[in-house]
What we know:
By secondary structure, chain A is an all-alpha fold. Helix content of chain A is 72%, strand content 0%. In chain A, 42% of the residues are buried.
Amino acid sequence: MSSINEIILISGMVVVTFSIRYILLAFSDRFYLPETFEKKLRFVPPAVLTAIIVPAVLMPGGSWDISLQNAYLPSAVGAIIAGFIFPKKVLAASISTGLIVFVIVRFFL
Amino acid sequence: MKTVAKMKHTSKNEFLNGMRDTIPLLLGAFPFGLIYGALAVSSGLSAKAALAMSAFVFAGSAQFIAVGLIAAGAPILIIIVTTFVVNLRHLLYSAALLPELKKLSQSWRIVLAFFLTDETFAVSAGRYRLEDNSPYKHWYQLGSSIIMYLNWQFWCAAGLALGTQIPNAQAWGMDVAMIVTFIGMTIPYIRTKPMVVTVLVAGTVSLLTWQLPYKLGLITAAILGVLAGISTEKVISIKKYNMKRDYE
């Protein structure tokens, strides 16, 4: 790719990427979001996170893998159980349990 | 993240906590940075351009796909349009953060928008959700942003330097750190019936739409999950209203 083309390509990618990330923030003073709508936005993070987690766990590498060969699966199950058992330390419990289970399944089973 | 609430709130503390809480997510980005760098070399993109893309576009999935399209000889316009589609999910993120970020100056909004990624969104949404009235929560997001950025630049450069010699980092499974962190971030939300429905629907749809290209499955699953949660909430409130009315 010629350097002119590289500059055009990267500039274009910068413009579209930054615009998507910024456009709502840029004009947020000019439109009014009712509070009830803002409250509904709280569903976004768990929805996005779940949509990232589920395929990554059940289809690592792009196809169904529900077996012990798939160390992500027991690791995720461990992280979920630990997170619900320790509601005050969810993050620490999920991360540590998930990682420990992963290492055990991956390297010792 | 819970410890944040107990600490004295200063911009510096928030910044450092944002960095600290993002550390597990750096592990998930690391193999992808390496592979991006290596792919960029073989795609025909110059090293300078590959680094510039990381520095100025700063969008892992889009960069990945762009490099693949360059290698395939796709026209520039197609690559830019694809970048747009792949990054559409960020619109959802900035919408979700809007109630918090609209309080800030435009320069803050520009900076935080530039650095917005899946990881920083996830970490920061968790921080904004805590009701401790810290006036410096945006510093937390900045901390998360900066450490994600530096990590990405470093591993992309390493991938470029190593080129085809890179080890098969994807097979090491380091992205498990990201997955279990995201699990730990999701659980605190699951306290009400509507949230349970949101998570179930988003999870199911994500499996059904997995084959859609360009992260469209992710967006579809997230939006349907959100709508399902909102509908459930509505149904529950109508039921409550009817029960109350019948009682009276």
